[in-house]
């Protein structure tokens, strides 16, 4: 188990600079990215989204305002309770969180290209299995990434 956790943390550490460049180029904060990822699977009431992200209502409102201004999400009335407001991701927001922009000069991309296709498939499948297991325990559903390619 320690080997898996150590490998996961190593992979996250390797990806942080690349992710930072990707989100900076999209002009998104980490909190905004986390909100988009949570909304990728389904619309959520603002209170629930704020609780999942550990944000106070005023902070959650600011995050939603900024994402809405950029055309990445929209506020809607809940279909079962019109008093509730939910945040729903829009196609532009979904593209941001499900696309995998690979920078040409990235060591991660070059290493992935150097691996045989079978090794890439095996590693991808193992990582997907691990992520699914973590999400299942965390009570989170996977974002709609069915159309994403490796």
How many separate domains make up the residues?
1
Estimate the mean pLDDT confidence: 84
User: What string gives the helices and strands in order?
Assistant: HHEHHEEHHH
Number of helices: 7
Return the CATH topology. Arc Repressor Mutant, subunit A
Taking the sheet with the most strands, its summary is: 3 strands, antiparallel
The CATH class, by name, is Mainly Alpha
Tertiary shape: globular
Low-confidence spans:
141-150
Q: What Rg is obtained from the alpha carbons, in whole angstroms?
A: 17 Å
Helix content: 55-70%
What structural class do the secondary elements suggest? mainly alpha
Annotated CATH homologous superfamily: Winged helix-like DNA-binding domain superfamily/Winged helix DNA-binding domain
- Strand order across the largest sheet: 1-3-2
Element layout with pairings:
Elements: H1 2-25, H2 30-39, E1 44-45, H3 46-53, H4 57-69, E2 73-77, E3 85-89, H5 91-98, H6 107-114, H7 117-138
Antiparallel strand pairs: 1-3, 2-3
